[in-house]
Each structure stands twice: as structure tokens, then as C-alpha cells.
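Is adenosine-5'-triphosphate placement plausible here? Inputs below.
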Amino acid sequence: MAQNLPSNKTIFSGLQPSGNLHIGNYLGAIKQWVRLQENNTALFCVVDQHAITVPYEPKELQNRILDAAAMYLAAGVNPEKSIIFVQSHVAAHTELAWLLSTVTPYGNVTRMTQFKDKSKKLSSKDAISLALFSYPVLMAADILLYNTNVVPVGEDQVQHIELARDIAERFNKQYGPVLTMPEAYIPQETARIMSLTDPKKKMSKSDGEKTYIALTDTAEVIRKKIASAVTDTDPIFSFKKSGPAVQNLLAIYKAFSEKEDQDIEKAFEGKGYKDFKESLAEVIITALSPIQEKYKTLREDDTDLRFTLGRGMHRAQQIANSTLHQVKEVMGLL
Ligand code: ATP
Ligand code: LTN
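Reply from A.M.:
I modeled the complex. C-alpha cells:
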């Protein structure tokens, strides 16, 4: 199902500052945001309160929040066009989450697959927090506070967006039409970039260095990781006929080179994996190097970055507080 590029809508999305951002995050999320900010009203949030739902290192969090925000800007999110801010700077998120939790059926939250996956990965039952369970309600609050129409995300987040829609519908039915119904926007080719070592699993920062390409990886590291990426038995370069490992590498090639399928297929016809992988590594390096340079500058002196986040906070607060006020009013709070 191909989706048209939205225009004249309100767009909201966010990433957790919980580790190395990788090319899956870039192609599946940030790169899409950059396109969407042109013809829409856009808000991009560093969702720090989501990142603390699993065990984490408090000493590292501040830096990780700044790293994530710097990567948004370095990758082309423009603070003159979009509102860029940190979730915990806008108190309305957690407040609305509580209010929404009163209309959220417990049974619906128990169906969330991300909770099941994440809780399985934790070492003990005690490490599974109530916050990890109620995470999707906070995500619904993030989205619903800004009268969001469109939420660009990777495929893995669709279930959470469905829950946000369900919560909005229940709320509006019970209290009146205050909340806007959001929709997920999933760019097709890059919806799911797979692991470099196991094409059955999505690329994820939690599965070890070799499985992903971090946005901050050096050219040398990128060449090494691509050279050791798994492939299928026969070198066939076809978007339809190759096996899953090569299809994934082709999808990455296409997304970074912005070339057409036929042109890529033709370029590697009759060639071996070595040539293809060398070319793929260079395509990735060329695309990432301007982003890496800008990122380095932004992180060397964070004055500008902090100023941008402060401005984003004020702009976000204005919208969020107005929605929260309406919600409280219809709910009968004083
Ligand atoms: P985790 O370690 O929890 O798997 P992650 O690396 O998947 O984390 P998230 O913070 O869960 O990253 O995802 C941030 C955004 O990037 C989401 O919109 C998600 O859909 C998108 N995303 C993450 N991984 C991929 C991927 N492999 N392909 C496409 N999009 C992705
Ligand atoms: N759950 C998402 C991050 C996230 C988000 C959001 C995305 C939190 N709040 C609101 C879009 C809109 C994730 O794990 N990637």
C-alpha cells in the first residue's frame, strides 16, 4: 500500500535517546521527517521519558538527549520550519498520559508486541516496570497533545498508533470531540531495514555493533560492516528475485543513492558480491559524511543546540497546554 506524501497536515514523531542511532532510524524515520517538514506543520521530539522505561545509565542520559537532538538537526530537520524539543520539557505529556489512561482498556495494552519483546529481553521480572507497560499511553499523549494528523514511523510502531487512535475515539465518545484522530505514515521501501547479520530481524541498536550501521560510524567501520554483512547463495541483484539478505542491501543502496531499481540492477548484473558491497559502502559513506560533519560541529559546542531546544520547548508548551486545558475541562476537572 503506497501512501501519498502528506501536505498541509500536522506531523509529530519522536525517537528515544537510548543509544546509537542507526541507518534504520535514519531511513525509516529522520529522513522522512526532513521531507515532511516542507509542506506540513511538524514537531519532532526527543522522547526521553520513553527511554527511562527500561534500565538505563542516568549519567549518560543528558548526553544522549543532546546527541539525538543534534542528529535531527544534522540530518536536515530545520528548526526554522519544525518544532524540535525534548519530551520532559513539556509537562503536559505525562499529565495527559494519566488522563488518557482512564479511558484506556487494560486488555488493549496487554496486546502490545513491543512490550512483550522488550520485557522478554530484560534480565529479571523486577526490571519490567509499570512504565514499560504503560509506555503506549504516553506515546498516545505525545501524539494527541498536538492535534496531530500524521505520524511518520517505521512499521514496528503501527500497533502503538492504532492504540492512540482507539484512545482518541474512546475519549471523544465519552467526553466530546476534543482529540484529533492521527494516522501512521510508513514510507514503503524503507519501512523495515533489516539486520546486517540476520535479514529476518529488523536492524536494531539492541542486537550488537555488527548488526547495524550507526550514523556516527567512520568510513572504515562502514566498509568493514558491509563487507561482512550476510548475503544469499547466488549473486543475483534483483529487487524481486534476490533472497532477503540481498534485497535488504539493495533497499539500503536505493535509499541512499536515490537511484531507480532498474539502474541499480543493471549496474551490478553479472558482478559478484564484492563489487556490490564496495559500491554500497561508498554510497553510504557519501550520504552520511555531510551529516557527520554537521553533527560534530553541533556537539562540539552545545550552546546553539540548547537554544534551539529551549525555543522548541516554548512553542510546544503553547500547543500542548491548550489541548490539556480542553481535556481537563471536558473531563470535569476544576
Ligand atoms: P530497539 O533497540 O528498541 O529495537 P530501535 O533501534 O528499533 O530500538 P527505536 O527507537 O525503537 O529504535 O525506533 C525509532 C524509530 O526508528 C521508529 O520510528 C522506528 O520505527 C524506526 N526504526 C527503527 N528501526 C528501524 C528499522 N530497522 N527500519 C526502519 N525503521 C526503523
Ligand atoms: N515508541 C516510539 C518512539 C515514540 C514515538 C512517539 C514515535 C514515542 N512517542 C510519538 C512517534 C510518535 C519508538 O519506540 N520508536
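Short version: The longest strand covers residues 10-15.
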